[in-house]
Amino acid sequence: MTRCATLFLVLAAVAALAPGAADATTRIKDITAVQGVRANQLVGYGLVVGLNGSGDSLRNAPFTAQSLESMLDQMGVNVRDSASRTRNVAAVLVTADLPPFAGRGARIDVTVSSLGDATSLAGGSLVMTPLNGADGAIYAVAQGPVAVSGFQIQGRAETLSQNVPTTGRIPNGALVEREVAGSLDDEETLVLELRNPDFTTAVRIADVINDYTKARYGRPSAREQDLRSVALRRPHNVSAARFLSEVGELVTQADSPARVVIDERTGTVVIGRDVQIATVAVSHGSLTVRITEGAQVSQPEPFSDGETVVVPETFVTVNQEGANLAIMGGTNLETLVRGLNMMGLRPMGIIAILQAIKTSGALQAELVVQ
C-alpha cells in the first residue's frame, strides 16, 4: 500500500475512534453569518510609476500613454506633442473589499494587477486611484508602494521567474472616503445564515438560542425559517451587537450529511462520519497486458534458390494480481475504514470501489466527484 493511502486510512480511523467525535460542538458564530453583514467589492483604474524599465511599452499599450498624458495634464505638464518612450509606467487594475461597517478614515488592503505588457511591478508606487463600487460612487482612494512577491530575470538564452511579478498588494493602501449605509440597531429581526445549510443544524441552533433567551430575557427569540436561515427577534433593551455576541458564543452540534468526496485528479478521498455501506462482496485486482513487437530473420536452406526475409513476431503476456474477493459492510466509519484497510488498496483503487458500490446501491451516502 502506498504512503498516501495509508495516511488516508489512518486519519479516517483516528477521526472515527477519537473520544467525543460524535458529540463535538462548535460555536454558533463559527457556523453562521449575519444576513446583510458582508463586504462590498471595489475596483479602480490607475498607474504604477517608478518601475525600473519593466513597465508597459507605450506603443503596444496606448491606454497607458493616454492615462499618462491625462495625469500630467492635470498637473500642468503638456506632453501631447511629444513622443514619450518611457518604460517606467504601467497601467493597473486596483481591487479591494470594503469590510462591513468600515468608517471614514479606515484603511483597507488593495490588490494591484497589470493590464498591459509590463514584465514586473516590483519597486513601483501606485498613484492616487479612486475605487468605485457597483453603484459607481467612490468609496475609497488607494495609493502607495506595491509589494510584489514574485520576480522575473531574463537573459538572452534563459528566463528565471518565480510566482507572478505582475500582481502585487498594498497593505493598508486605501483610505475609506464613504460609508455604506446601514445599521444593525435599526433592525429588530436579525437573520443568521448557515454556512453549511441543513435542517437539523438550523433546528438545533434555534433550540439552543431559545433556551438561553428564556433564561436571560424571559422569552424565546429564535425561529428556524428553512435549512439555510434562523430568524432572531432582538430584545428591545439590548443592542444588536451585544445580542449577536451573546448568541455567537453559544455552542451546538452541527449536523453533516453522509457524503463521500472524491478528487480523481489527486487521488483524494474524504469519507463522512455517517457514511454506511450495506454488506457487499468486492473483488478488485489489476490486469496488465504487455504486447512486444519483434522481428525474426528467416534464411533459406544452403544451395537453394530461396531468399532471406524478415518475419514479424509478436509476444503477448498477461498478468493479473490481487483479484481477491472480500466481504465489506459496516454501520460506522470505523468498520468501513477497517474493511478498506484490510484490502490493501491504493487511492485510485479506493475511488474505483466506492464508485462501484454507489452504482450497486449499497453506499448509503451522497457521492461527490470533483
TrEMBL record:
Family matches, as InterPro entries: Flag_FlgI (IPR001782)
Pfam families in the cross-refs: FlgI
Residue runs in coiled coils: none
Cellular compartments per GO CC: bacterial-type flagellum basal body, distal rod, P ring; outer membrane-bounded periplasmic space
A molecular function (GO) term: structural molecule activity
An example Gene Ontology biological process: bacterial-type flagellum-dependent cell motility
Source organism, top-level taxon: Bacteria
Protein keywords: Bacterial flagellum, Cell projection, Cilium, Flagellum, Periplasm, Signal
PANTHER family: FLAGELLAR P-RING PERIPLASMIC PROTEIN FLGI, FLAGELLAR P-RING PROTEIN
Family: Belongs to the FlgI family.
Subunit structure: The basal body constitutes a major portion of the flagellar organelle and consists of four rings (L,P,S, and M) mounted on a central rod.
Function text: Assembles around the rod to form the L-ring and probably protects the motor/basal body from shearing forces during rotation.
UniProt-recorded name of the protein: Flagellar P-ring protein
